[in-house]
Amino acid sequence: MNQTISFFSGFNVNDFWFLGEAALRTLWISALSVTIGTVLGGFFGWMLYEGRLWATLTLAPVLDIFRSVPLIIQLVLFYNFAPIVGLDLDPFGSGTVILTIYTAALVANVARGGIEAVGKPMRRAARSLGMSYWQDMRYVVLPIGGRAVFPAWVGVALGVMKDSALVSVLGYVELLKASQILITRTQEPFLILSIAGAFYFALSFPISRYAAQLEKRWAQ
Amino acid sequence: MFDYNFHWRPVLKSLPDLLEAGLLTLQVAALSMIIGIVIGLALALIRLKLKGPLYWLATGWVELARNTPALFQLFFFGFGLGAFGVHLSPFLIVLAGLSFNCAGYLAENFRGGFQAVPDTQLRAARSLGMTSWQAYTRIIIPQVFKIVYHPVTNQMVWAVLMSSLGMLVGFRELSGETQFFASRTFRIFEYFAVTAIIYYVIVKIILVASRLLAMRLFRY
Predict the structure, then answer these.
(1) Which of A53, B30, B118, B176 has the fewest CB atoms below 10 angstroms from its CB?
(2) Which CATH number fits the domain that encloses residue A137?
(3) Which topology term describes how it sits in the membrane (chain B) (predicted)?
(4) Which residues of A touch B66 (CB under 8 A)?
(5) Which of B64, B162, B192 sits opposite A80 (nearest CB)?
(6) Per-residue model confidence as pLDDT tens digits over B34-70
(7) What structural domains and CATH numbers belong to chain B?
């Protein structure tokens, strides 16, 4: 008896579930690395601003490397480097580490710009009102400088969200990898890619619009 | 813990091939930048001057290019078009994807540039008897070019970094070539480390060259 086996099957409702889960994974890895990366990047930015000579000589070139080498190369390199030094990281771990450092390298510049955006006279005024250095940082520099660079930070965060698609090279099944898997099975590339693209777009477009609007309003 | 033996000899032996692939990376990035600049200019002018379907088409292009991952765009040109029976070669996939992406980002830069040139410049040029074409090519665009020079060089760097995605659609530029060699010898870390250095050098060369060119171009 001859029975033909079909390797391909159409796109069905369960696949939406599969894509949804993958989209959540995309959100999770980007949220995690943007959060940690922002804290780290803020700290780096502060060091670049305050540290002057030694930070310019040590920290700046290191951060520059992460901005000058393609993310995909960084990911593959770190994923293969981790076992050499005895770290046991899964694709998610490696992806998070690299995305975090990548975010930090981008945010460091943004943060330094934010601190520089607060005028020296304002800082001096704060200090002469009796504020300590940290009070000045917390109550003067953070609100004013943070506002100046918030749109830039949103740009970085959205960029990392989009770049998180590259973690798929390590085998982490995020949205784009999931759609690739589905395409292989269903042979409906156009439909599935449209769904994946629509998700990224629906996430990124409103936020970037909102940031642009804030920028315009704050510029007045 | 540290019992990994580094083998650099196979990497050194294929270094000429890698450098040649680096040249290919540079070529595809430069080509997509040229296409991107032409289309980006057109998109920016359409968005500033026209209304109706053409405006929405241009806006759709820009927002789609800016709000979805570059890898998604590459996949779209790779597999997505396959649904319509259009099968591009890996080179064309990368070129089309990068050009699409660059055009979108550059259009926004150009739009800002055009808005920064006062309207009176155009009117003054027209009242001197220049045709619209002359006024744009001789008065407006040179000024816009000066304003957007920095963002455009940055975009060139991004184009080089983005071209590394070619690895995932089977294009043998620097990253693809590296993966080819790495998977043949299993010296993944060594190969990608060298590739990272090559990318770093390429990026630095572009930045230095653009700075030298700027000194020459914007002397006045």
Answers:
(1) A53
(2) 1.10.3720.10
(3) Multi-pass membrane protein
(4) 204, 208
(5) B192
(6) 999 999 999 999 998 888 889 999 999 999 999 999 9
(7) 13-116+149-217 (1.10.3720.10)
